[in-house]
Amino acid sequence: MSVDATLLQSLVEAAPDGMVICDARAADRPVVFLNAAMERLTGYDADYIRGRNLRFLQGEDHEQEGLDKIRSALRQGTSCHTTLRNYRKDGTMFWNEVTIQPLRDANGNVTHFAGFHREGGDRLRLRESAEKTDPSLSTQTMLAYLRDDKLTGLLRRTYFDELVKRDWGLAQRESRRLSFLLFDLDCYFTYKETFGKNGSDQSFKRIARVIGGCFRRASDLCGRFDEDQIAAVTTGLDLAQASKLAEAVLGRVKDLAIHHPRSPVSRYVTASAGVVSLVPPHDAAPERVYELALQALRDAKDLGRNRVVSREAD
């Protein structure tokens, strides 16, 4: 049954949540459409918002964890959900629950991003109220919120980065070897298209549990690095040992036998890995090993996926 375009327009305008569409092909991803609820939420009128990047709603508040998640989603062309501190036209701060969804053309290219915005203050106030009732719950809840990724239970990216910086500094002082392993699920975008968000989230949760179970030493770190990526850091392994560990992890992922009907690699979900091993030099930062691991991972994808590419850092 076809739906009249005027009816769809009326539906969007009547929606209680703010809705925007941004042009993914333009350098600054400007807003090209918004509904009335977005005007009410922010206090800005449509003429002011249209043509701008929505980062203006952050004001000067640029140090927010959710921003990294959004940047990653925009860069990868994936969906994401997060909460930001945004500022209305009158300067008042509000918690903005943001969901971003890529829109694709017939060839699968991302042409636009749809954004859904709603005020999250009531939900946060309910959580604060519960924490005031039970101080021990407050501490536990905040620690879990800061530390753990909601879906996988692995370390959140920001907390993972902080622990990597700590271990990097220790390794520099003690000339200790670190190995960085980066895992990415193969053809997972088509898996999401086939099974939807709930199905793909449940599968990713299972996969994350298996990968995390391979890094149980007290010195190991394992966290969600990006939308479909998991990273781990180990100490005391040389490049050959770290590569062998990565191969074992890929085998564990495939052994889950999660059916992937649209994968050109295997009938089951597989993963690729980039591995870098080094004794951190005193003039380098952890971002350097991130770059090398990402390049190794891209090489693994280019070579056919479902494999490990490793390299010794200079």
Automatic annotation (TrEMBL):
It comes from the Bacteria. Keywords: Chromophore, Flavoprotein, FMN. It holds the Pfam family GGDEF. The keyword Flavoprotein applies. SMART domains: GGDEF, PAC, PAS. InterPro entries: GGDEF_dom (IPR000160), Nucleotide_cyclase (IPR029787), PAC (IPR001610), PAS (IPR000014), PAS-assoc_C (IPR000700), PAS-like_dom_sf (IPR035965), Rev_trsase/Diguanyl_cyclase (IPR043128). Residues 4-77 form the PAS domain. Residues 176-313 form the GGDEF domain. The keyword Flavoprotein applies. Residues 80-132 form the PAC domain. NCBIfam families: GGDEF, sensory_box. This is Diguanylate cyclase. It comes from Steroidobacter gossypii.
